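user:
I keep going back and forth on a fold encoding question. Separate attempts, laid side by side, tell us more than any discussion would. Would you put together a sequence-and-structure record for a protein of your own picking? Write it directly below this note and I will take it from there.

assistant:
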Amino acid sequence: MKNLKNFFLLLIAVLLSTGIYSQKKDALRFESGQIDAMLKTAKNQNKHLLVEIINGTQVADDEYFNTIVFAHEKVSRIIPENYILLKVNLKTDKNIKRYAKYNVHKYPTFLFLDGDDNIMYKLAGKVEPNIFLDASNFGINPDNNMHLWKRMIDENPDAESGILFNYAKGLYYGGDNYELYKEKYFKNVGANYAHDMNGIEAVLLFTEDMNDPRFTIFMEDYSAIGPGNLNPRFVNKKINEIISISIILSVSANKKIVLDDTISSTCRTFHIDDPMVVMSIVKMKYYKQIEKNQDNYFRALTEYLMTSNGLLYNYELHSYIKELTNDCNNQEFLMMAITQLNELISIDNKIDYQPTMIDISIKLHNFSEANHALEVLKSFNIEAKKYSEAELNAMAEKINKAHLEYKEAQPKREVKKENNVIHKAKK
Protein backbone atom coordinates (compact mmCIF):
# COMPACT_ATOMS: atom_id res chain seq x y z
CA MET A 1 0.00 0.00 0.00
CA LYS A 2 2.86 2.32 0.88
CA ASN A 3 4.54 1.62 -2.46
CA LEU A 4 1.27 2.42 -4.23
CA LYS A 5 1.05 5.80 -2.47
CA ASN A 6 4.69 6.58 -3.36
CA PHE A 7 3.94 5.72 -6.99
CA PHE A 8 0.88 8.00 -6.90
CA LEU A 9 2.90 10.92 -5.51
CA LEU A 10 5.62 10.37 -8.11
CA LEU A 11 2.97 10.38 -10.84
CA ILE A 12 1.58 13.70 -9.61
CA ALA A 13 5.06 15.21 -9.59
CA VAL A 14 5.52 14.15 -13.22
CA LEU A 15 2.14 15.60 -14.17
CA LEU A 16 3.06 18.84 -12.45
CA SER A 17 6.26 19.08 -14.43
CA THR A 18 4.32 18.70 -17.68
CA GLY A 19 1.73 21.29 -16.66
CA ILE A 20 -1.25 18.91 -16.72
CA TYR A 21 -1.97 19.45 -13.03
CA SER A 22 -0.59 22.95 -12.77
CA GLN A 23 -2.50 25.31 -10.48
CA LYS A 24 -2.71 28.92 -11.55
CA LYS A 25 -2.21 31.84 -9.25
CA ASP A 26 -3.87 34.54 -11.27
CA ALA A 27 -5.33 36.80 -8.56
CA LEU A 28 -5.45 40.35 -9.89
CA ARG A 29 -3.24 42.95 -8.24
CA PHE A 30 -5.21 46.05 -7.20
CA GLU A 31 -3.20 49.16 -6.34
CA SER A 32 -3.95 51.86 -3.80
CA GLY A 33 -4.06 55.50 -4.85
CA GLN A 34 -6.26 58.48 -5.69
CA ILE A 35 -9.03 57.82 -8.17
CA ASP A 36 -8.57 61.01 -10.19
CA ALA A 37 -4.88 60.31 -10.72
CA MET A 38 -5.66 56.71 -11.66
CA LEU A 39 -8.34 57.84 -14.14
CA LYS A 40 -5.76 60.08 -15.78
CA THR A 41 -3.26 57.22 -15.95
CA ALA A 42 -5.88 54.93 -17.48
CA LYS A 43 -6.81 57.50 -20.10
CA ASN A 44 -3.17 58.15 -20.98
CA GLN A 45 -2.64 54.40 -21.45
CA ASN A 46 -5.83 54.08 -23.49
CA LYS A 47 -7.28 51.82 -20.82
CA HIS A 48 -10.25 51.80 -18.46
CA LEU A 49 -10.27 51.86 -14.65
CA LEU A 50 -11.59 49.01 -12.53
CA VAL A 51 -12.26 50.16 -8.96
CA GLU A 52 -12.96 47.73 -6.13
CA ILE A 53 -14.66 49.52 -3.22
CA ILE A 54 -14.64 47.81 0.18
CA ASN A 55 -15.59 48.97 3.65
CA GLY A 56 -13.12 47.50 6.11
CA THR A 57 -11.70 43.97 6.07
CA GLN A 58 -13.64 41.38 4.09
CA VAL A 59 -11.59 38.20 4.23
CA ALA A 60 -14.27 35.82 2.91
CA ASP A 61 -15.02 38.04 -0.08
CA ASP A 62 -11.33 38.50 -0.85
CA GLU A 63 -10.81 34.74 -0.81
CA TYR A 64 -13.81 34.14 -3.07
CA PHE A 65 -12.82 36.71 -5.69
CA ASN A 66 -9.12 35.77 -5.63
CA THR A 67 -9.62 32.02 -5.90
CA ILE A 68 -12.78 31.86 -8.03
CA VAL A 69 -13.48 35.04 -10.01
CA PHE A 70 -10.07 36.61 -10.64
CA ALA A 71 -8.53 33.19 -11.30
CA HIS A 72 -11.03 32.55 -14.10
CA GLU A 73 -9.01 32.07 -17.28
CA LYS A 74 -10.77 34.76 -19.35
CA VAL A 75 -11.16 37.26 -16.51
CA SER A 76 -7.47 37.01 -15.59
CA ARG A 77 -6.58 37.77 -19.22
CA ILE A 78 -9.11 40.50 -20.14
CA ILE A 79 -8.75 42.63 -16.99
CA PRO A 80 -4.96 43.28 -17.04
CA GLU A 81 -5.04 43.89 -20.79
CA ASN A 82 -7.74 46.55 -20.59
CA TYR A 83 -7.89 48.02 -17.08
CA ILE A 84 -5.86 49.86 -14.49
CA LEU A 85 -6.81 48.40 -11.09
CA LEU A 86 -7.59 50.45 -7.98
CA LYS A 87 -8.80 49.27 -4.54
CA VAL A 88 -10.50 51.78 -2.25
CA ASN A 89 -11.29 51.16 1.43
CA LEU A 90 -13.98 53.59 2.57
CA LYS A 91 -13.00 52.90 6.19
CA THR A 92 -9.64 54.57 5.69
CA ASP A 93 -9.90 56.69 2.52
CA LYS A 94 -9.77 60.40 3.35
CA ASN A 95 -11.52 61.34 0.13
CA ILE A 96 -14.73 59.42 0.93
CA LYS A 97 -17.06 62.14 -0.44
CA ARG A 98 -15.51 61.61 -3.87
CA TYR A 99 -17.19 58.19 -4.07
CA ALA A 100 -20.73 59.33 -3.17
CA LYS A 101 -21.55 59.83 -6.85
CA TYR A 102 -21.20 56.10 -7.51
CA ASN A 103 -24.13 55.21 -5.21
CA VAL A 104 -22.38 52.35 -3.40
CA HIS A 105 -24.56 50.42 -0.91
CA LYS A 106 -23.03 46.95 -0.89
CA TYR A 107 -19.49 45.63 -0.54
CA PRO A 108 -17.45 44.88 -2.40
CA THR A 109 -18.64 47.02 -5.32
CA PHE A 110 -16.76 47.00 -8.61
CA LEU A 111 -16.89 50.07 -10.86
CA PHE A 112 -15.92 49.68 -14.50
CA LEU A 113 -15.07 53.26 -15.50
CA ASP A 114 -13.87 54.82 -18.73
CA GLY A 115 -11.18 57.50 -18.72
CA ASP A 116 -13.82 60.22 -18.36
CA ASP A 117 -15.20 58.71 -15.14
CA ASN A 118 -18.37 57.34 -16.74
CA ILE A 119 -19.78 54.15 -15.21
CA MET A 120 -19.67 51.64 -18.03
CA TYR A 121 -20.85 48.85 -15.71
CA LYS A 122 -21.15 48.17 -11.99
CA LEU A 123 -21.29 45.04 -9.82
CA ALA A 124 -22.28 44.89 -6.17
CA GLY A 125 -21.54 41.96 -3.88
CA LYS A 126 -20.56 38.41 -4.71
CA VAL A 127 -21.16 37.46 -8.35
CA GLU A 128 -20.33 34.42 -10.42
CA PRO A 129 -17.29 34.50 -12.74
CA ASN A 130 -19.41 34.65 -15.90
CA ILE A 131 -21.22 37.77 -14.62
CA PHE A 132 -17.89 39.43 -13.85
CA LEU A 133 -16.65 38.50 -17.32
CA ASP A 134 -19.74 40.02 -18.96
CA ALA A 135 -19.27 43.22 -16.93
CA SER A 136 -15.59 43.37 -17.96
CA ASN A 137 -16.60 43.19 -21.62
CA PHE A 138 -19.37 45.78 -21.27
CA GLY A 139 -16.86 48.02 -19.50
CA ILE A 140 -14.63 48.28 -22.57
CA ASN A 141 -17.31 48.24 -25.27
CA PRO A 142 -18.06 51.80 -26.48
CA ASP A 143 -21.25 50.61 -28.21
CA ASN A 144 -22.71 48.47 -25.42
CA ASN A 145 -22.50 49.72 -21.82
CA MET A 146 -24.54 51.22 -18.98
CA HIS A 147 -23.58 54.82 -19.76
CA LEU A 148 -24.70 54.50 -23.37
CA TRP A 149 -27.93 52.63 -22.56
CA LYS A 150 -28.94 55.34 -20.06
CA ARG A 151 -28.33 58.08 -22.62
CA MET A 152 -30.33 56.23 -25.28
CA ILE A 153 -33.26 55.71 -22.88
CA ASP A 154 -33.19 59.37 -21.81
CA GLU A 155 -33.27 60.45 -25.45
CA ASN A 156 -35.99 57.97 -26.38
CA PRO A 157 -38.39 56.84 -23.61
CA ASP A 158 -39.69 54.17 -26.00
CA ALA A 159 -36.26 52.62 -26.49
CA GLU A 160 -36.18 49.06 -27.76
CA SER A 161 -36.74 46.24 -25.30
CA GLY A 162 -33.16 44.94 -25.45
CA ILE A 163 -31.75 48.26 -24.25
CA LEU A 164 -34.33 48.54 -21.46
CA PHE A 165 -33.61 44.98 -20.33
CA ASN A 166 -29.82 45.40 -20.38
CA TYR A 167 -30.04 48.64 -18.41
CA ALA A 168 -32.42 47.15 -15.80
CA LYS A 169 -30.16 44.09 -15.54
CA GLY A 170 -27.13 46.33 -15.03
CA LEU A 171 -28.91 48.19 -12.24
CA TYR A 172 -29.88 44.85 -10.69
CA TYR A 173 -26.30 43.56 -10.60
CA GLY A 174 -25.01 46.96 -9.50
CA GLY A 175 -27.23 46.97 -6.42
CA ASP A 176 -29.29 49.91 -7.68
CA ASN A 177 -33.07 50.37 -7.97
CA TYR A 178 -34.13 48.69 -11.19
CA GLU A 179 -37.94 48.73 -10.73
CA LEU A 180 -38.68 51.63 -13.11
CA TYR A 181 -36.71 50.16 -15.99
CA LYS A 182 -37.95 46.65 -15.31
CA GLU A 183 -41.52 47.88 -15.74
CA LYS A 184 -40.54 49.85 -18.83
CA TYR A 185 -39.15 46.65 -20.31
CA PHE A 186 -42.25 44.57 -19.58
CA LYS A 187 -44.49 47.35 -20.89
CA ASN A 188 -42.44 47.46 -24.09
CA VAL A 189 -42.67 43.70 -24.80
CA GLY A 190 -46.29 43.41 -23.63
CA ALA A 191 -48.01 40.15 -22.78
CA ASN A 192 -45.72 38.22 -25.10
CA TYR A 193 -42.70 38.66 -22.83
CA ALA A 194 -42.20 34.89 -22.46
CA HIS A 195 -41.26 34.74 -26.15
CA ASP A 196 -38.97 37.79 -26.10
CA MET A 197 -35.29 36.87 -26.30
CA ASN A 198 -34.74 38.36 -22.82
CA GLY A 199 -38.13 37.48 -21.36
CA ILE A 200 -37.23 34.36 -19.39
CA GLU A 201 -34.13 35.97 -17.88
CA ALA A 202 -36.13 39.11 -17.00
CA VAL A 203 -38.76 37.08 -15.14
CA LEU A 204 -36.11 35.13 -13.22
CA LEU A 205 -33.92 38.12 -12.36
CA PHE A 206 -36.65 40.57 -11.43
CA THR A 207 -39.08 38.27 -9.56
CA GLU A 208 -38.97 38.05 -5.78
CA ASP A 209 -42.33 36.39 -5.12
CA MET A 210 -43.48 33.05 -6.54
CA ASN A 211 -47.03 34.45 -6.57
CA ASP A 212 -46.05 37.15 -9.06
CA PRO A 213 -48.34 36.56 -12.10
CA ARG A 214 -45.39 36.74 -14.48
CA PHE A 215 -43.63 33.94 -12.62
CA THR A 216 -46.73 31.71 -12.40
CA ILE A 217 -47.37 32.15 -16.15
CA PHE A 218 -43.73 31.39 -16.90
CA MET A 219 -43.83 28.23 -14.78
CA GLU A 220 -47.00 27.05 -16.55
CA ASP A 221 -45.18 27.33 -19.88
CA TYR A 222 -41.70 26.28 -18.73
CA SER A 223 -42.10 22.56 -19.42
CA ALA A 224 -42.97 23.47 -23.02
CA ILE A 225 -40.60 26.38 -23.71
CA GLY A 226 -37.62 25.18 -21.64
CA PRO A 227 -34.69 27.44 -20.65
CA GLY A 228 -34.35 29.01 -24.10
CA ASN A 229 -30.81 30.23 -24.73
CA LEU A 230 -30.04 30.41 -21.01
CA ASN A 231 -27.86 28.06 -19.00
CA PRO A 232 -30.25 25.43 -17.50
CA ARG A 233 -28.27 25.57 -14.26
CA PHE A 234 -28.96 29.32 -13.96
CA VAL A 235 -32.67 28.81 -14.71
CA ASN A 236 -33.13 26.00 -12.20
CA LYS A 237 -31.19 27.81 -9.47
CA LYS A 238 -33.27 30.96 -9.91
CA ILE A 239 -36.54 29.00 -9.88
CA ASN A 240 -35.46 27.24 -6.66
CA GLU A 241 -34.37 30.54 -5.14
CA ILE A 242 -37.66 32.33 -5.88
CA ILE A 243 -39.77 29.45 -4.55
CA SER A 244 -37.66 28.83 -1.43
CA ILE A 245 -37.51 32.50 -0.40
CA SER A 246 -41.28 32.85 -0.91
CA ILE A 247 -41.99 29.80 1.25
CA ILE A 248 -39.65 31.02 4.00
CA LEU A 249 -41.39 34.41 4.05
CA SER A 250 -44.78 32.68 4.30
CA VAL A 251 -43.67 30.39 7.12
CA SER A 252 -42.07 33.22 9.09
CA ALA A 253 -45.29 35.24 8.78
CA ASN A 254 -47.57 32.35 9.80
CA LYS A 255 -46.17 29.85 12.31
CA LYS A 256 -49.17 27.52 11.75
CA ILE A 257 -47.96 26.63 8.25
CA VAL A 258 -46.65 23.07 8.06
CA LEU A 259 -43.29 23.26 6.31
CA ASP A 260 -43.18 19.86 4.58
CA ASP A 261 -46.79 20.09 3.36
CA THR A 262 -46.24 23.60 2.02
CA ILE A 263 -43.11 22.59 0.12
CA SER A 264 -44.78 19.49 -1.36
CA SER A 265 -47.91 21.36 -2.49
CA THR A 266 -45.84 24.19 -3.98
CA CYS A 267 -43.71 21.75 -5.96
CA ARG A 268 -46.86 20.12 -7.32
CA THR A 269 -48.32 23.51 -8.26
CA PHE A 270 -45.22 24.49 -10.21
CA HIS A 271 -44.55 21.00 -11.63
CA ILE A 272 -41.10 20.79 -10.05
CA ASP A 273 -39.36 17.63 -11.31
CA ASP A 274 -37.19 17.13 -8.23
CA PRO A 275 -38.99 18.36 -5.09
CA MET A 276 -36.22 16.96 -2.86
CA VAL A 277 -33.87 19.72 -4.01
CA VAL A 278 -36.41 22.43 -3.16
CA MET A 279 -37.17 20.65 0.13
CA SER A 280 -33.51 20.72 1.18
CA ILE A 281 -32.99 24.36 0.10
CA VAL A 282 -36.06 25.56 2.03
CA LYS A 283 -35.05 23.59 5.12
CA MET A 284 -31.51 24.97 4.97
CA LYS A 285 -32.89 28.52 4.99
CA TYR A 286 -35.53 27.70 7.61
CA TYR A 287 -33.21 26.05 10.13
CA LYS A 288 -30.48 28.64 9.64
CA GLN A 289 -32.58 31.81 9.60
CA ILE A 290 -35.78 31.07 11.53
CA GLU A 291 -35.56 28.11 13.89
CA LYS A 292 -31.75 28.30 14.16
CA ASN A 293 -31.28 24.57 14.65
CA GLN A 294 -27.74 23.69 13.62
CA ASP A 295 -28.19 19.90 13.48
CA ASN A 296 -31.27 20.16 11.26
CA TYR A 297 -29.50 22.75 9.11
CA PHE A 298 -26.54 20.42 8.52
CA ARG A 299 -28.92 17.54 7.83
CA ALA A 300 -30.66 19.65 5.17
CA LEU A 301 -27.29 20.76 3.80
CA THR A 302 -26.04 17.19 3.36
CA GLU A 303 -29.34 16.27 1.67
CA TYR A 304 -28.85 19.22 -0.67
CA LEU A 305 -25.35 18.09 -1.57
CA MET A 306 -26.62 14.57 -2.27
CA THR A 307 -29.58 15.69 -4.43
CA SER A 308 -28.27 18.77 -6.27
CA ASN A 309 -26.31 16.89 -8.92
CA GLY A 310 -25.40 19.29 -11.73
CA LEU A 311 -26.99 22.28 -9.99
CA LEU A 312 -23.95 23.55 -8.10
CA TYR A 313 -20.69 24.84 -9.52
CA ASN A 314 -17.63 23.06 -8.15
CA TYR A 315 -16.59 26.09 -6.10
CA GLU A 316 -20.07 26.22 -4.51
CA LEU A 317 -19.92 22.54 -3.66
CA HIS A 318 -16.49 22.99 -2.11
CA SER A 319 -17.72 25.98 -0.11
CA TYR A 320 -20.53 23.90 1.44
CA ILE A 321 -18.12 21.05 2.19
CA LYS A 322 -15.80 23.53 3.94
CA GLU A 323 -18.73 24.81 6.00
CA LEU A 324 -19.51 21.27 7.15
CA THR A 325 -15.85 20.63 7.86
CA ASN A 326 -15.41 23.77 9.94
CA ASP A 327 -18.70 23.88 11.85
CA CYS A 328 -20.17 20.36 12.02
CA ASN A 329 -19.11 17.54 14.38
CA ASN A 330 -21.70 14.96 13.37
CA GLN A 331 -19.71 11.98 12.06
CA GLU A 332 -22.51 10.85 9.74
CA PHE A 333 -22.70 14.25 8.04
CA LEU A 334 -18.92 14.48 7.83
CA MET A 335 -18.77 11.07 6.14
CA MET A 336 -21.25 12.32 3.53
CA ALA A 337 -19.16 15.46 3.10
CA ILE A 338 -15.91 13.55 2.55
CA THR A 339 -17.67 11.34 -0.01
CA GLN A 340 -18.68 14.48 -1.90
CA LEU A 341 -15.16 15.89 -1.60
CA ASN A 342 -13.62 12.70 -3.00
CA GLU A 343 -16.00 12.86 -5.96
CA LEU A 344 -15.08 16.51 -6.50
CA ILE A 345 -11.36 15.70 -6.38
CA SER A 346 -11.84 12.86 -8.88
CA ILE A 347 -13.24 15.24 -11.52
CA ASP A 348 -11.65 18.61 -10.70
CA ASN A 349 -8.59 18.22 -8.50
CA LYS A 350 -7.35 21.56 -7.22
CA ILE A 351 -4.82 22.58 -4.65
CA ASP A 352 -7.53 24.29 -2.56
CA TYR A 353 -9.33 20.99 -1.94
CA GLN A 354 -6.41 19.37 -0.09
CA PRO A 355 -6.49 21.55 3.08
CA THR A 356 -10.21 20.74 3.33
CA MET A 357 -9.40 17.04 2.97
CA ILE A 358 -6.83 17.39 5.75
CA ASP A 359 -9.30 19.09 8.11
CA ILE A 360 -12.19 16.72 7.48
CA SER A 361 -9.92 13.66 7.77
CA ILE A 362 -8.70 14.91 11.16
CA LYS A 363 -12.31 15.29 12.34
CA LEU A 364 -13.01 11.74 11.20
CA HIS A 365 -9.81 10.55 12.95
CA ASN A 366 -8.43 9.25 9.65
CA PHE A 367 -4.91 10.53 10.14
CA SER A 368 -3.34 8.43 7.37
CA GLU A 369 -5.71 10.12 4.90
CA ALA A 370 -4.86 13.53 6.37
CA ASN A 371 -1.13 12.87 5.86
CA HIS A 372 -1.79 11.60 2.36
CA ALA A 373 -3.70 14.81 1.52
CA LEU A 374 -0.76 16.83 2.87
CA GLU A 375 1.67 14.98 0.59
CA VAL A 376 -0.59 15.62 -2.41
CA LEU A 377 -0.79 19.29 -1.40
CA LYS A 378 2.99 19.52 -1.24
CA SER A 379 3.22 18.02 -4.72
CA PHE A 380 0.76 20.57 -6.11
CA ASN A 381 2.58 23.36 -4.30
CA ILE A 382 5.86 22.69 -6.13
CA GLU A 383 4.55 24.69 -9.06
CA ALA A 384 1.65 26.61 -7.53
CA LYS A 385 3.73 28.01 -4.66
CA LYS A 386 0.52 28.99 -2.91
CA TYR A 387 1.56 27.84 0.56
CA SER A 388 4.77 28.77 2.35
CA GLU A 389 7.01 26.21 4.02
CA ALA A 390 5.80 27.51 7.39
CA GLU A 391 2.15 26.95 6.40
CA LEU A 392 2.85 23.41 5.24
CA ASN A 393 4.74 22.68 8.48
CA ALA A 394 1.81 24.08 10.46
CA MET A 395 -0.55 21.67 8.69
CA ALA A 396 1.74 18.75 9.49
CA GLU A 397 1.91 19.89 13.12
CA LYS A 398 -1.90 20.11 13.25
CA ILE A 399 -2.23 16.52 12.02
CA ASN A 400 0.38 15.22 14.48
CA LYS A 401 -1.15 17.11 17.41
CA ALA A 402 -4.67 15.86 16.64
CA HIS A 403 -3.39 12.30 16.26
CA LEU A 404 -1.54 12.46 19.58
CA GLU A 405 -4.60 13.87 21.39
CA TYR A 406 -6.75 11.15 19.87
CA LYS A 407 -4.38 8.39 21.07
CA GLU A 408 -4.12 9.91 24.54
CA ALA A 409 -7.92 9.95 24.82
CA GLN A 410 -8.21 6.29 23.75
CA PRO A 411 -8.22 4.83 27.31
CA LYS A 412 -11.05 7.17 28.33
CA ARG A 413 -13.07 6.13 25.27
CA GLU A 414 -12.54 2.46 26.14
CA VAL A 415 -13.72 3.02 29.71
CA LYS A 416 -16.76 4.93 28.53
CA LYS A 417 -17.57 2.21 26.02
CA GLU A 418 -17.23 -0.49 28.72
CA ASN A 419 -19.47 1.46 31.10
CA ASN A 420 -22.10 1.80 28.41
CA VAL A 421 -22.05 -1.98 27.86
CA ILE A 422 -22.44 -2.60 31.60
CA HIS A 423 -25.25 -0.07 31.85
CA LYS A 424 -27.14 -1.70 28.98
CA ALA A 425 -26.62 -5.18 30.54
CA LYS A 426 -28.13 -4.00 33.85
CA LYS A 427 -31.19 -2.73 32.01
